[in-house]
Amino acid sequence: MLKTILTGLTGLLCLVVASLAVGAASAGSGAHYKIVTGQERGTYIQIGADLAKYVAQPAGIDLEVMPSKGSAENVQRMRFEPGVKLALVQSDVYQAYLDMANSGNADAGTAIRPLRLIMPLYNEEIYFVVRNDSPMQTINQIKDKVISIGPIGSGTAQSATTLYHLMFNQAIPDQNVQSLSNEDAIAALVVKKIDVAVIVAGQPAKLFTDMNPDLLSQIRILRLDPNVPETARAKETYFPATIRESSYPNWLKEDVPTLTVKAFLVTYDYGLRDTVSNLNRFADSLCENFDTLQEKGHPKWKQVKLELPPLTKGWQYYPPIERHLRACIARRASMPAAGATAAAAQQPAAPKVNKRPCSDQERLLLLCGK
Questions:
Q1: Which domains does the chain carry?
Q2: In sequence order, what DSSP letters do the residues of 31-63 get, joined into one string?
Q3: Could you give the CA distance from residue 149 to residue 179 in angstroms, rounded to a whole number?
Q4: Which long-range CB contacts under 8 A does 18-24 form with residues at least 24 apart?
Q5: What gap in Å lies between CA 364 and CA 101, rounded to an integer?
Q6: What's the pLDDT tens digit per position in 213-259?
Q7: pLDDT in tens, 53-91
Q8: What whole-number distance in Å separates Cα of residue 80 and Cα of residue 76?
């Protein structure tokens, strides 16, 4: 009888231990998500790494940071690639998709309409890089030059082509366009295969901070001239900015005025309970660890404000995260430096594009062949 009781107790104990082990394993196995960012030496990928380390990890989410060509590719991957739950996207690319969708492009609508914003991040500076021996001094002098606009599918390509069209009321001539990565564009610039390399990156950009000093000495940045009509037209969509000498003390001898475009953190309009729960934890962790991001993350985090400004038509926040972040913002309302300028809340509008088979805009947004 005693043996029977002991055997039963042993079996019950094993069952309890096994149950506890399963529960512990379940609690310790967080979600495995991906965030698509940008080129490997750009700012986006560093911002993604900061989110993975200081926000996702404390929330129990294993966030894999994925390089990409840039914003247009990120929209496509956010929409269609399994596991991608977060993306970094430039405001002009997001708006360009909306404009294409509103003009009747079904593929653009399929890609962009289910996407939702989490929050605005920071402004990315636009670098117009030339050789030191170039006669060009200001951005408005790039007309009819051979230009690398960045890889097709990148936000840089969208910004470069939009800016050129705004400034000169025409597209870049096909024979003058090169679609090179940042590194390849600098190499092509030095050997005189191109005249201008357009690069979009938040300062300080690793591309330049890690660059060989001898190579840096062969290139410089064109300045924005505030007094020319080309600049006035560019400012219809983009904002003035400054590339600071302090960001590149081994390269710049003074601050350089330029233009900027805003970056956003984007997700999808998820409805599955587990996904919503995980993203809510991500939002809470973003709030709780925001000061850590600003202290230990990329310097660009110091320009980010924990706020959800009003959006223009067609832009929408992701409701579950919006509720969590607004509650967080309310709790932090008594802290200093709260509130954003109205200018930061306004989103630039990309120009409308005439519909035709595989337009240049569709090509930039990776909508051809769909």
A1: 28-364 (3.40.190.10)
A2: EEEEEE---TTSHHHHHHHHHIIIIITTTTEEE
A3: 5
A4: none
A5: 14
A6: 999 999 999 999 999 999 999 987 888 999 999 999 999 999 999 99
A7: 999 999 999 999 999 988 889 999 999 999 999 999 998
A8: 6
End-to-end CA distance of the chain: 75
Q: Count of alpha carbons within 13 Å of 330, Cβ hemisphere only?
A: 6
Distance of CA 256 to the CA centre of its chain: 23
Beta bridge partners of 64: 34
List of long-range contacts for 252-257, beta carbons under 8 Å, 24+ apart: 252/221, 256/221, 256/223, 257/223, 257/224, 257/226
pLDDT by residue (tens digit) across 157-195? 989 999 998 899 999 999 999 999 999 999 999 999 999
Q: What is the DSSP letter of 315?
A: -
Structure confidence by residue, pLDDT tens digits, 31-46: 999 999 998 888 899 9
Strands annotated E in 60-114: 61-66, 84-90
Helices 91-102, 71-80: axis angle to 10 degrees equals 60
Query: Shortest CA distance to 120 belongs to which of 351, 341, 364?
Result: 341
Distances (CA, A) of 302 to 21, 118, 202, 290, 337: 42, 18, 12, 10, 12
Using an 8 Å Cβ cutoff, are 347 and 312 in contact? yes
Length of the chain in terms of residues written: 370
Give, in order, the Cα–Cα distances in Å from 328 to each of 121, 135, 316, 322: 17, 52, 19, 10
Tell me how crowded residue 280 is: count the other CB atoms within 10 A of its CB. 16
Using one digit for the tens of pLDDT, what is the confidence trace for 90-105? 988 888 888 889 889 9
Phi and psi at 77, nearest 5°, equal -70, -35
* pLDDT for position 334: 67
Threshold 0.85, pTM exceeds: no
Is the pLDDT reported for residue 282 higher than 70? yes
Rounded CA separation 145/132 (Å): 16
